[in-house]
Write a structure and sequence with these properties.
Blueprint (H helix, E strand, L loop, with lengths): L1 E8 L8 E6 L2 E7 L5 E6 L5 E2 L2 E6 L18 H11 L5 H17 L2 E9 L6 H13 L4 E7 L10 H11 L3 E2 L9 H18 L3 E5 L9 H11 L6 E5 L2 H4 L2 H14 L2 E4 L1 H7 L15 H6 L4 E3 L16 H11 L5 H9 L3 H7 L14 E4 L4 H7 L3 E6 L2 E5 L5 E2 L8 E2 L5
Parallel strand pairs: 1-4, 6-7, 7-8, 8-9, 10-11, 11-12, 12-13
Antiparallel strand pairs: 1-2, 2-3, 5-14, 14-15, 15-16, 17-18
Helix pairs in contact: 2-3, 5-6, 6-8, 11-12
The protein binds fe (ii) ion.
C-alpha cells in the first residue's frame, strides 16, 4: 500500500500516461497503469508533473527591500550598488529574516524549492549572513537554501572583505563567491579569482562568482576562473555567474574561450531578466541585450542555468520567484525558439541548476525524493508559454502549496464558457 499515487501524468521528457507511486517521501514506482493501491490518489489528467524549480542565482539578503531607503531612479546596476550601500547600515536582522521568509513563501507557491543565494559579506557585522543562516535552517523542511559568501564591494577592494568572507565560511556558508570585474584593476580581479579558488580548494567548497557582469568585451575573468579551476582540480565545482561581457566579446576570442570552459568543467549561469535590463545601458542604438551566449555555451558542452538574481530589490523592482518567467525571458533573449532549445530552457530552471547545486535525491527516478510540481500545462513548451499555474507543490510526498486552476469565464453567446489558453 503506497501513501499516494499521481495518475495520468505527462513528464518533462514527453512520456504520457505515467503513474507516480509515492511512499515514505520518495518516488517508489513510475510506470503507466500502476496496479498498486494507495491511501490517496490524484488524477493529473494528462498535465505536466516535474521536479521542482531550482534557482541557481539569487540575492535573498536584498529581496523585497525595493524602495528602502529610496527607489533606484535610474534603474542602473551602479545606482543599485550605491543604493544597497545606503541601505546596509540600516538593516536589522529581524527585518532581513522576515523578508527572506516572505520570499521563501512566494517561492514555495511557485514550486521553487531550491535556491542558491549570494549573501553580502562586506558588512563587518555579518548581519545578513547570520540572518540567512537562520533562514536556511528554518526553511530546511520545505526548501533547500544554499548560501554563497559574496564580497559585493570586492574582496581586495573593500577593507576586511577577505576576513569577513572567511568568517562567513567559518559560520557555515556553503560556497565561495567573488566579483573580479568590480576589483580596482584587471590584475586585482585576476588575483581575486586565484585567491578565492585557492581558498575554496583548501576548504573543499564549491565556487560561484559574479564574473564579468559588464558590457566590456575585455573583461575576461572567466578565462582566469577556468584556468584556476583546472589547475586546482575543481572541475564540476565552479560556476561563473552572469558572464555578460561574453555577449560583447570578439567572436574569434570566444571560439577559443568556449572549449576552454568545457575543458575546465565550469558551469554558467545567465540571469535573463536582470541582464536584459541592466546591461547595454551605455548604448544608444543598436542596444546590446547583454545576456551571455547561452546556445553557444550549451553547444560547447557547458551546463547553463537561468537564475532569477533579484526580486523587488535595489536592482530590480519586479519579479515574483517565478522560474517559468525567468526561462520565458531567457528563451526570448537567446532566440531559443526551436523545440529542443525550448526544452533546454525548461532544463535551465530545473535539472541543470539541480546538478550545479549538487542537490541530492532530485529528479523523477525511482528512489528520488517526492518533490514534485503539477502544472496546468500539457508539456514543457506549454508550461513556458503560459508560465503555467502550479496546481500542486509537493515536498517529500506532502502537499505544501496549491493554486486553483486559472480559467476565465466568458460571457459571449455561442462561444465556450471557459477559456484557459491551453492547446485544444
Ligand atoms: Fe547576482
Amino acid at each position: 500500500m503506497l501513501d499516494l499515487i499521481l495518475r495520468h501524468a505527462t513528464l518533462p521528457d514527453g512520456r504520457r500516461g505515467m503513474d507516480l507511486g509515492i511512499e515514505a517521501g520518495r518516488i517508489a514506482a513510475l510506470q503507466p497503469q500502476l496496479a498498486a493501491q494507495a491511501a490517496h490518489e490524484i488524477d493529473c489528467a494528462g498535465q505536466l508533473v516535474t521536479p521542482p524549480f531550482v534557482d541557481a542565482h539569487f540575492h535573498m539578503d536584498s529581496t523585497l527591500s525595493d524602495g528602502l531607503p529610496r527607489v533606484n531612479r535610474s534603474g542602473t546596476l551602479l545606482e543599485g550598488i550605491a543604493l544597497w550601500g545606503e541601505l546596509k547600515p540600516q538593516l536589522t536582522q529581524d527585518a532581513l529574516v522576515a523578508r527572506a521568509l516572505a520570499y521563501c513563501d512566494w517561492a514555495v507557491a511557485r514550486g521553487l524549492l531550491a535556491i542558491r543565494s549570494h549573501v553580502d559579506v562586506c558588512d563587518d557585522r555579518l548581519l545578513a549572513v547570520e540572518a540567512l543562516l537562520q533562514v536556511r535552517e528554518q526553511v530546511r523542511p520545505y526548501l533547500d537554501l544554499q548560501l554563497v559568501a559574496f564580497p559585493q564591494d570586492g574582496v581586495l577592494r573593500r577593507p576586511n572583505a577577505l576576513r569577513n568572507l572567511q568568517r562567513a565560511l567559518d559560520l557555515g556558508v556553503d560556497v565561495v563567491g567573488g566579483i573580479p570585474h568590480f576589483e580596482r584593476t584587471m590584475a586585482e580581479g585576476a588575483e581575486s579569482v586565484k585567491l578565492l579558488c585557492e581558498l575554496a580548494a583548501a576548504r573543499g567548497l564549491p565556487v560561484d562568482m559574479h564574473c564579468d557582469e559588464s558590457d566590456d568585451p575585455l573583461s575576461r575573468h572567466i578565462e582566469t576562473l577556468a584556468f584556476h579551476t583546472q589547475r586546482l582540480g575543481l572541475q564540476g565545482r565552479v560556476t561563473g555567474s552572469h558572464l555578460t561581457s561574453m555577449h560583447s566579446m570578439d567572436n574569434y576570442y570566444v571560439s577559443k574561450l568556449l572549449p576552454l570552459l568545457a575543458e575546465s568543467g565550469v558551469a554558467a549561469i545567465a540571469n535573463p531578466l536582470i541582464n536584459i535590463t541592466l546591461q547595454g545601458r551605455h548604448d544608444t542604438y543598436p542596444k546590446r541585450r547583454g545576456m551571455t551566449r547561452v546556445p553557444e555555451l550549451l553547444a560547447a558542452g557547458v551546463p547553463v542555468a537561468f537564475g532569477q538574481d533579484c526580486v523587488m530589490d535595489p536592482w530590480y523592482a519586479l519579479g515574483s520567484g517565478d522560474m517559468l518567467e525567468v526561462a520565458h525571458m531567457g528563451l526570448h533573449v537567446a532566440q531559443m525558439t526551436g523545440q529542443e532549445a525550448m526544452r533546454h530552457c525548461f532544463e535551465a530552471v530545473t535539472t541543470t541548476p539541480a546538478r550545479i547545486l549538487g542537490l541530492q535525491g532530485y529528479g523523477l527516478d525511482v528512489g528520488c525524493r517526492a518533490d514534485l510540481v503539477l502544472l496546468q500545462a500539457g508539456d514543457v513548451v506549454e508550461a513556458l508559454r503560459l508560465r503555467a499555474t502550479r496546481l500542486l507543490v509537493l515536498r517529500a510526498g506532502q502537499i505544501i502549496a496549491n493554486t486553483p486552476a486559472q480559467t476565465a469565464t466568458l460571457h459571449l453567446p455561442g462561444r465556450p464558457a471557459a477559456v484557459d489558453c491551453r492547446k485544444v
